[in-house]
Amino acid sequence: MTSPPSIPSFAQADIARILITPDEIQAKIAAWGEAISRDYAGLSPVLVGILKGSVFVLADLLRHITIPVRLDFIAISSYGPQTRHSGVVRLLKDLDHSIEGCHVLVVEDIIDTGLTLSYVLRQLRQRRPASLAVGTLLNKPVRRLVDIPLRYVGFELPDEFVVGYGLDFRGRYRNLPFIATLRPEILLAA
Ligand code: IMP
């Protein structure tokens, strides 16, 4: 039996429950990398990350992909300081390269309402990629407001706000190596 992951001291008083351990995350990402290597063999896909949360997933995922891939990023504003979607999406940084005729896989850390991603997908589709698919480490299906076909899903989550492994609350907790919920008083203090 493996021991539960230790919580860094700065976060000890704030974490309510660890939902997904570092080992569980890494095992899922390894399997995801193998699947991408199989599914996109010969296609040299472009993996697109949405800054900043997806950086963690992408960095680990790429190390498990055994075919040639390119990496690009976009940055958008979505949540602001709150935990719920503001409905406002603004493009802060565009892709560095054209994706016309390319096989594009958007890699997300989490999909909640889906509003952010549907905006991004609309933008990317206009650039005529050869294919456009989505993979996400975490999915909150009960909160979905727009339908988004997902090719790869790591873990399904209930309607709870989570932090860690790239996910933040007010800019904090991204560096936790696990996915966890926060104590209600931390969220309410916002
Ligand atoms: P959506 O547009 O509602 O799907 O929101 C997507 C974005 O909201 C994600 O890329 C995250 O940045 C953020 N987000 C959604 N749920 C959570 C959460 O539980 N914790 C931290 N960030 C979240």
- Net shape: globular
Task: Kindly report the average pLDDT value.
Answer: 92
Strand content: 25-35%
Which strand order does the major sheet show? 4-3-2-5-6-7
Describe the structure.
There is one protein chain. By secondary structure, the protein is α/β, with parallel strands linked by helices. The chain has 4 helices and 9 strands, in the order βαβαβββαββββα. The protein has helices at residues 22-39, 54-62, 115-125, 184-188, and strands at 15-20, 46-51, 70-77, 90-93, 103-111, 131-139, 152-156, 162-163, 179-182. Strands 4-3-2-5-6-7 form a 6-stranded mixed beta sheet. A 3-stranded antiparallel beta sheet has the order 1-9-8. β5 (103-111), α3 (115-125) and β6 (131-139) form a beta-alpha-beta unit. The termini are far apart. Inosinic acid is lined by residues 53, 78-79, 85, 109-117, 161-163, 167.
List the helices and strands and how they pair.
Layout: E1 15-20, H1 22-39, E2 46-51, H2 54-62, E3 70-77, E4 90-93, E5 103-111, H3 115-125, E6 131-139, E7 152-156, E8 162-163, E9 179-182, H4 184-188
Parallel strand pairs: 2-3, 2-5, 5-6, 6-7
Antiparallel strand pairs: 1-9, 3-4, 8-9
The site of inosinic acid has 17 residues, from strand 5, helix 3 and strand 8.
